[in-house]
Specification:
Blueprint lengths: L3 H5 L12 H18 L1 H9 L10 H6 L3 E2 L2 H4 L10 E6 L9 E5 H17 L8 E8 L8 H8 L6 E10 L4 E3 L1 H14 L3 E5 L1 H13 L12 E5 L12 H12 L6 E5 L8 E2 L6 E2 L5 E5 L13 E6 L10 E11 L12 E7 L8 H10 L1
Parallel strand pairs: 1-14, 4-5, 4-7, 7-8, 8-9
Antiparallel strand pairs: 2-3, 5-6, 9-10, 11-15, 12-13, 13-14, 14-15
Length: 372
């Protein structure tokens, strides 16, 4: 008999949050009981707030789960499984900055991979047609456990790989942005005529396209089934940032990739549920999580349209007690029915980062390569 957590992965419509609601609540109850039994930190946290896992019966009970700040995972290792059962260990920072880290047992890792496949399949982005890949992320090195690199490498499995180019080349000590090598790869991919899949930081795609225009290059015409799936933001380059629509328009102009096949993604090491844009370029909440906007001072949940801290709830991980996580991101949540794409689940708009501390994200670390 499947557990509620496993049953959640059986739904084909990954945005039917209403239809999968009871299953999600049951999965959260299972996950809370799992961590309470196996993790002293989490057991004491729930005790402090007077919460029993068995008392989780509805959506309101999920809001009451005490969120763990994402910074906790930068400092502490708190496992709910024996360390020998950890099969993947990923970190969030690129070349500098305080690192978040996350540990995955096999069940948690497989759950994450299934979430990604289900979501990409929902949008029609799983294909049997061979494709060439351009990854605006770090070229893998021996022993590398960067979360962004693992995420982008994982995306290679949803269409058979012909060739793959990493834009951030390993130089023996660190990574450098190889803009001219990237342009040559795109020219080669055009000549081959296969679909091209572009993943990674949007800033690097922008600087590539701008360099092509500065060089007076003719626009490329990549296969019509090409796509971009970007993520990581523009942190460190806010002065050069253009809107997503402008970037997608530039990609259509210079690469021939239709705007409808240019998408953004959101995720984090601390909360690794995948969020991909719908055709109208909104991040809807899938059946695998719930999102709450919390007041900056009181952490009380806010209604649609109000800005606060992004807070997520998910039964994804059995390895680490990240059931309810408070992010450093500022966000607004809106009624999904206002989007117009046909998905009714709420969608989020990320509005920035809270604070100005020294902690750096992957995008900030990556942007430093451009300064070099």
């Amino acid at each position: 008999m499947l557990t509620k957590r496993e049953t959640l992965l059986e739904y084909e419509n990954v945005y039917d949050t209403a239809g999968a609601g009871d299953t999600f609540i049951g999965a959260m109850k299972e996950a809370a009981a799992w961590h309470t039994e196996r993790n002293e930190f989490y057991r004491r946290l729930l005790e402090k707030h007077g919460i029993e896992p068995g008392s989780i019966e509805n959506e309101e009970d999920l809001i009451k789960l005490p969120p763990v700040h994402a910074n906790f995972f930068k400092t502490y290792e708190s496992l709910s499984v024996p360390k020998e059962e950890i099969v993947e260990h990923v970190t969030s920072s690129g070349t500098s900055g305080q690192k978040s880290q996350m540990f995955f047992d096999k069940s948690s890792w497989d759950f994450g991979q299934t979430m990604i496949r289900r979501t990409l399949d929902y949008f029609g982005f799983v294909s049997n047609e061979p494709a060439n890949y351009l990854l605006y992320t770090y070229e893998p090195t021996e022993g590398s456990n960067l979360g962004t690199a693992k995420t982008d490498e994982g995306l290679l499995q949803y269409a058979p790989r012909n060739e793959c180019c990493f834009a951030l080349k390993f130089n023996g000590e660190g990574h450098d942005f190889d803009v001219y090598g990237t342009i040559r790869a795109l020219q080669n991919y055009e000549a081959q005529g296969l679909p091209v899949r572009i993943f990674g930081f949007p800033s690097f795609l922008y600087f590539t396209l701008e360099q092509m225009k500065k060089l007076g290059m003719r626009p490329l015409k990549l296969d019509k089934n090409s796509l971009t799936m970007l993520g990581g933001g523009w942190k460190g380059y806010a002065d050069k940032q253009i809107s997503k629509r402008e970037l997608y328009g530039l990609a259509e102009e210079m690469l021939g990739i239709p705007e409808s096949r240019c998408r953004d993604g959101y995720g984090s090491t601390e909360h690794s549920v995948p969020y991909f844009e719908c055709p109208n370029h909104h991040f809807h909440i899938p059946i695998y999580s719930r999102m709450y906007i919390r007041d900056f001072k009181t952490l009380e949940p806010l209604p649609f349209g109000k800005e606060g801290f992004a807070s997520f709830v998910t039964p994804h991980l059995l390895s680490v007690p990240a059931l309810s996580v408070l992010m450093g991101d500022k966000a607004v949540m809106r009624d999904g029915r206002d989007c117009g794409c046909g998905i009714d689940s709420p969608y989020m708009e990320m509005t920035g980062r809270a604070g100005t501390g020294a902690a750096k994200s992957c995008a900030i670390a990556a942007s430093e390569l451009l300064k070099r």
